Structures are given as C-alpha cells and as structure tokens.
User: What shape does this take?
Amino acid sequence: MTTPDTALIVIDMQRDFCPGGALAVERGDDIVPGINALMAEFDTVILTQDWHPAGHSSFASSHDGKAPFDTVQMPYGTQVLWPDHCVQGGHGAGFHPDLTVDRAAMILRKGMNPAIDSYSAFFENDQSTVTGLEGYLRARGITRLVFVGLATDFCVAWSAMDAARLGFEATVRLDLCRAIDLDGSLDAAITNMRDAGVHISQG
Assistant: This one.
C-alpha cells in the first residue's frame, strides 16, 4: 500500500474514449486491468468523468461548417472541436464496464459548463474556474498524486500539469495511459509535463 498522503487519479476511463466509442483512443481499454490492480495499492482513489450537456460548445456539431478536430477560438483560447461524446446520462458517458468503480472515494464530473471545455481535473479550460478537487485533496492531507487513464496528451497531461503547478507531487504512469496523438500531441504533452515538473513513469 502507498502512504495515506498519496492518491490515485483515474482520468476519464469511459466507454466513449475506448474502442467502439465516439472519441475512441486506440487500445484505450487495454489499460483497465492494470488500473484495477493499481487501485488496490491506494487508500484514496478518485475517478474523473467527462460529463457534457448535449450541444456542448466543444462539439463540432455545435459549429456550422466545422468538423471534428477542427479548431475554433473561444474566449479562453483555442479549442479543439470533438465528436459528440460523454453526453450526460448517455451510454458513452458511463465508465468502462470492467473498471472497478467501487474503489472510488470520489467521482469528479467535469465539462458540465456548456460554454467551457474541461480537460483538467482541477480547472476548466479557462484555467481559473475550479472543479473543487484541490480543496478535497488538501482537506484529506494528500500531497502526492499518481495519474492514469485517458487520454495522455489531453486530460491526463492537463490534470498532471495543474497538479504540479498547485504544488502537488505529480506522477504520470505512461504504461497505464493511452493517447489520441493528434499531430504530434503526445510528444508535446510529455515534454510539457516534464517541463512543468511532472514525473513520468513507465511503471
């Protein structure tokens, strides 16, 4: 077991991000058994869940003439447009059926504001609207975080970099993550995470 000041953060292990889903990450389901095994080593396990209202502003279908993976400018910066995914209450928003969700002390839903996307478990993409996760961790005396899940180059990376910026000791287990790798986004994310002080581990 890890020490009580360490938590495992499992990012967005949902049906829509796994093969067959609306925004599938290649081999995204391969990591489920390893994540389940790792959960047993932690006193505190937190799951995040993308939870978008229908017609979310990050969906390509909400923008005339735009296709998935195009970009638009939002008040908070450049936004990649995605296929409709993880719609609140929908089948695709559910966790992978083999994920051991009973180990979760907390399930954090994000991306619920229709006007702002939310990759990070700590902040919406405006980098100022908080999710409340930091306060939860501080109240429990947790200072070290291990990140796994989907996708390495978006929600995992943003979460880990925000954790480091907030003063947590952050580690990403690359062996228990999978990436979208959009135009070199995986290499860029790894570089950015290292530059932010995130520890990169292969297990």
